[in-house]
Amino acid sequence: MAIQPKLRRRRRTKIIATLGPASGTIEVLTRLFQAGADVFRLNFSHGDHASHAARFAMIRELEAKFDRPIGILCDVQGPKLRVGRFAGGRVHLQTGQSLRLDLNPTPGNTQRVNLPHPEIIEAASIGATLLLDDGKLRLRVVRKHADALETEVVVGGPLSDNKGVNVPDVVLPIPALTEKDRADLEFACQHGANYIGLSFVQRPEDVAEAKALIAGRAWTMVKLEKPQALDNLDEIMALTDTVMVARGDLGVELPPEEVPLAQKRIVRLARQLGKPVVVATQMLESMISAPAPTRAEASDVATAVFDGADAVMLSGETAAGQYPYEAVNIMDRIIARVEQDAGWRAMIDASRGEPRATAAGAIAAAARQVGHTIGAKAIVAFTASGSTALHVARERPDSPIIGLTPQIDTARRMAVVWGVHAVVTPDVHSMGEAVSRAERVSKTEGFAANGEDIVVTAGVPFGRAGTTNALRVATIGRS
Questions:
Q1: Which of 153, 110, 109 is nearest to 129 (CA)?
Q2: 223 an active-site residue?
Q3: pTM assigned to the model
Q4: Domains in the chain, ordered, with CATH?
Q5: Which run of H or of E encompasses 268?
Q6: Are 411 and 435 in contact (CB under 8 A)?
Q7: Which terminal residue of the chain has fewer beta carbons within 10 Å of its beta carbon, N or C?
């Protein structure tokens, strides 16, 4: 039997939950959604198309059951750079010793190992740093040959088969999308993905290539996890639809003291551009094996909320952890508590940039100001493509945002956008009809009652994307 009561989040910042072995049933998905998950992430580094298709079906079943749009993020793997295998499965490298990385596929030892990536050998220069096994081991290139790199072990330790290689000093001439990624991307779009997560982006050309393949079927979500991407941040941000601060790999290639500054910079720029920004990785990492987070982790989530991020993400906590429900539940509670604090609103207002110098930017800024002045119970944004709702969300208004759209795909995309409660509703054709519809939805969704005010924004003529140019104040029950 369908569940009829309307589900409404009592917070603005959204939650993304990654699915995996710990969250592979409709019962667990239901609990995660009820606890606060707004978007579910499918990680294409793991699982096959059949298992992902089953998760798509379960999420859409859940969406129908609760009559609430749910976003799906499909995260493609990207190029994975790894060393080869060792004769004994693992070795222990001593600090100060030499290690040769070459193209020879023969299993390695403590003196040499296969590096099946000629592009690294070609691009690396003397003095370049190579990081192995998520940065646990550090090598420095001392000599270079056509088919090998001679390195000195700067930080030693155990190293086993197929561990990852990071090259923080070098822009590698490799595409961000592998053949596997292209197949996964097409599969995801055909099954109705709402966002495609792009891994290991280095250049704006990487984003342009993905957008051409996606062809408008989903939003791109660039995962910023390479220092080279930060060097091209303005150009990448201009192209992508959304962005993720992927602190895991970013923290491998950047010094730890640089990661918080990079996070602040990315969130600030995304807010200026009005593009959704997600803060991810290790937010409640201890909850993979513990029923409660550390106090530092709670503060980390709170910091992202204070900065005005659109969403925060759980990875291993919900994909493979022992306490997936508890992780979503406590993240929901942390966000809700922060957003009740007067200091949060003061920081959000202080960090708001000037309105964008467009008609849509001016209308969105006016909607926020009018809503604040009259104490509006909601700002109702009519949006075909999502553009109007994004403009209003950029302003981080006091009032909740109701995004009304005739497109289910647009409603699902709004699931990641700060403060937006998306509702699918038939198209309207006049401002009078829009106001009547806004009043009715505001009441049925539990935002406003008779005698209370709402602000309505839209683009006239209706049905044309990118034309936000109208604002109206309405009192429920008086029209």
A1: 153
A2: yes
A3: 0.93
A4: 14-78+176-341 (3.20.20.60), 90-166 (2.40.33.10), 359-475 (3.40.1380.20)
A5: helix 259-273
A6: no
A7: N
Which residue among 281, 318, 388, 457 is the active-site one? 281
Q: What's the first-to-final CA gap in the chain, in angstroms?
A: 36
Q: Which of 82, 144, 182, 333 is catalytic?
A: 82
418 half-sphere exposure, CB direction, 13 A CA radius: 31
Q: Where does residue 134 fall: left (phi above 0), alpha (psi -120 to 50 degrees), or beta otherwise?
A: left
Provide φ and ψ at 93, rounded to 5°. -95, 130
Strand extents, DSSP E, 66-111: 71-75, 90-93, 98-102
The one catalytic residue in 14, 223, 226, 437 is 223
Q: Which of 206, 280, 270 is nearest to 234 (CA)?
A: 270
The residue whose two tokens read 């222990």 is 92
For residue 78, give both structure tokens. 């990207």
Q: What is the mean pLDDT of each run of 10 residues along the chain (479 residues)?
A: 62 98 95 98 95 98 96 94 94 97 96 95 94 94 96 96 89 89 98 96 95 98 94 97 94 91 97 97 96 98 98 97 98 98 96 91 96 97 94 97 97 98 94 95 95 93 77 89
Compute the distance between CA of residue 312 and CA of residue 281 in angstroms, rounded to an integer.
9
**pLDDT for position 395:** 97
* Phi, psi of 431, rounded to the nearest 5 degrees: -65, -35
Token reading at 44: 């294409």
Distances (CA, A) of 211 to 228, 252, 365: 20, 27, 30
Report whether 55 contacts 24 (CB < 8 A). yes
Q: What is the distance between the alpha carbons of residues 326 and 330, in angstroms, rounded to a whole number?
A: 6
User: Bridge partners of 382?
Assistant: 404
Residue 41 designated active-site: yes
Give the active site residue among 11, 12, 14, 41.
Answer: 41
Give 140's strand partners: 129, 152
